[in-house]
Amino acid sequence: MPLFELDHIHFAYPGHAPILRGAGLTLEAGQRLAITGANGAGKSTLLRIMVGLLVPDRGTVAAFGQVRRAEADFHEVRRRAGLVFQDPDDQLFCPTVTEDIAFGPLNLGKSRDEALAIAEDVLTRLDLTHLRERVTYKLSGGEKRLVTLATVLAMEPEVLLLDEPTNALDEDNAARLVEILTALPQAMVLVSHDTRFRAQIAPDSLRLNEGRLCPETG
Ligand SMILES: Nc1ncnc2c1ncn2[C@@H]1O[C@H](COP(=O)(O)OP(=O)(O)OP(=O)(O)O)[C@@H](O)[C@H]1O
């Protein structure tokens, strides 16, 4: 049974021309799927539809074996599929890095001590312990990206949805991100303009073009 199955998704922002016009994708267990496409093609929109932050005008979203329609259906989806937003400022809102990372586990019912231990473990795995006490909004763009990934990994999602994860990363950190992502067991959908990065992480690549997803060639 696929983790995600999107079928004939149509979507327009109110008052705007349609962006998605029959888009479909299947994400199987363990699969790493890349999505590329021009600026404004609708890639971020598609990720938001996958976790129910936007509702398609037509088409179906099935996740973890069930068709999901109502907002309540997506609570479980958002627990099991972690979306790393393109803009870290959409995701980071606590005063310090540790608090931001502990927030998700606390929300999932962990005790304060457990949540702090998880935060420390994720910071160690990502080699970010030096940022532990930093004020989130004063981090650099690249540091914010890595901390955003940490907040999502702390929730131990079964699927990772990554929107332009290499944005704002220098070469060393981009290379480290490749190592981190390659070592993770989760299935992933990776939105990226970076051809080399896509090839390193996700052998299967789709292109969003004119509202539909087609296998990427070449
Ligand atoms: N809330 C909104 N209201 C109206 N239009 C929107 C809204 N959010 C996004 N759009 C428009 O929808 C289109 C698709 O946006 P989206 O962010 O999904 O594209 P993308 O493929 O992720 O682009 P990029 O590669 O630049 O990140 C764009 O033209 C964008 O301007």
Could you say which small molecules are bound to this protein?
A: adenosine-5'-triphosphate
How would a crystallographer describe the biggest sheet? 6 strands, mixed
Shape-level CATH architecture:
3-Layer(aba) Sandwich
Spatial strand sequence of the major β-sheet = 6-7-8-3-9-10
- Fourth-tier CATH superfamily name: P-loop containing nucleotide triphosphate hydrolases
Assess the beta-strand content as a share of residues.
Answer: 15-25%
Choose one word for the global shape.
globular
Radius of gyration: 17 Å
Distance between the termini: 29 Å
CATH-derived topology: Rossmann fold
The overall number of domains is 1
- The ordered string of helix (H) and strand (E) elements is EEEHEEHEHHHEHEHEE
Percent helix range? 25-40%
Describe, in short, the structure shown.
The protein is 35% helix and 25% strand.
Comma- or semicolon-separated keywords:
single chain; 218 residues; alpha/beta; Rossmann fold; 6-stranded mixed sheet; 4-stranded antiparallel sheet; globular; binds adenosine-5'-triphosphate
Question: What can you see in these coordinates?
Answer:
It is built from seven helices and ten strands. With 218 residues, the protein is an alpha/beta fold. The chain has a single domain, classed as 3-Layer(aba) Sandwich (Rossmann fold), CATH 3.40.50.300. Adenosine-5'-triphosphate (ATP) binds at residues 13, 16, 19, 37, 39-45, 86. InterPro entries: AAA+_ATPase, ABC_transporter-like_ATP-bd, ABC_transporter-like_CS, ABC_transpr_CbiO/EcfA_su, ECF_ABC_transporter_ATP-bd, P-loop_NTPase. GO terms for molecular function: ATP binding; ATP hydrolysis activity; ATPase-coupled transmembrane transporter activity. Belongs to the ABC transporter superfamily. Residues 4-217 form the ABC transporter domain.
